[in-house]
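*Target chain*
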Amino acid sequence: MAQEMREGIYDLLAARGVSRRDFLKYCGSVAAMLGLSEMAAPQIAAAVEGGAKLQPAVWLDLGLCTGCTESTAQAGNPNVADIVLDLLSINYMETIMAAAGDQAEEAKAKTIEEGGYILIVEGTVMTGEGGNTLRIAGKTGMEVLKEAASKAAAIVAVGSCAVDGGWVRANPNPAGGKGVKDVAVELGFDKVPIINLPTCPVNPEWIVAVVIDVLMLGALENLAVLNLDELGRPKLIFGQTIHDNCPRRGHFENGEFVKQFGTVEEVKQFCLYEVGCKGPQTFTNCPKVRWNRKASWCVESGAPCIGCGNLNWVDNDAPFLKRMPNVGGVRPETIGTVLGGAAAAGLLVHGVASFSSGRAKGAPVETSKAYDKKKGGDK
């Protein structure tokens, strides 16, 4: 039976132009995101081959723009439709499923009744007007979430909207947008493990890594395997800042900055810190994993990081293309009092290295906002 399932999966991948070698290579990249060596690739492949069809999933759409779904459709090779949608048997996903209306709701209800599924939530939980700012099949979004979370084995909140309300939460927030974890106690599913994958939109490679970790490698029996931070994010994905791995970091250390778009400094791909880049205070591995089948990511495409991996990032990180007033160059003796938390530590290291080598030309620092004092954002 296992041999038949294995061959069936490879036949499916082959039909979509994915070779066994490509599949194993992809499993190696998933292993890296899970903090394992590439030697674990066969183990991940075996887990997919042996257990995939046994793992049902429900993808719930709340208050959203479908941006995370669009991002998911641009996953690597093999794409998420191969690895997650087909092999994990997503029984309900409004955006892509062929069924509609009562038939779709029946598929969801049957999956919930049987229990043990992974619940993937995209979009904001709208609590305004008693939850009536969003209604699905005659029920409020809060009622739909409460029902779907009731028998889930784990919940993965994908994208900033599901994590903390995202764009909808931004002031003045008339819809009462909140994240999944924010309403867990109120709706009675606070005992269900919740894994947060912020950014706007979510990176599909993270979904694959977390789903495989949760449902195929036994992470539910041992949540320490997930190694979540205090905000419910996997540390292996959200444990380093954008700045730590940014290909433009050398320009930061040399004091070479883009001060205005459309200048020669932009053509030379100098550091974007002075035009608002939030890389030093944003914790994700975007420079390593990238987007759109690993083709590029924000900074590589010429845009500064706007900090969408942080919490309440729309309010906290605005204005996106400006820095707070400069208060002088990087000075090792004062930077600790100017910047907060891990961002300060990261810039201090770079400042010391730059000044000791004589390369620094006065890289700017800024007075701290409240969220700079907490790793990755406010709670």
Remarks:
- The first helix runs from residue 2 to 15.
- The two ends are 48 Å apart (CA to CA).
- Residues 54-238 form a domain with the Rossmann fold fold (CATH 3.40.50.700).
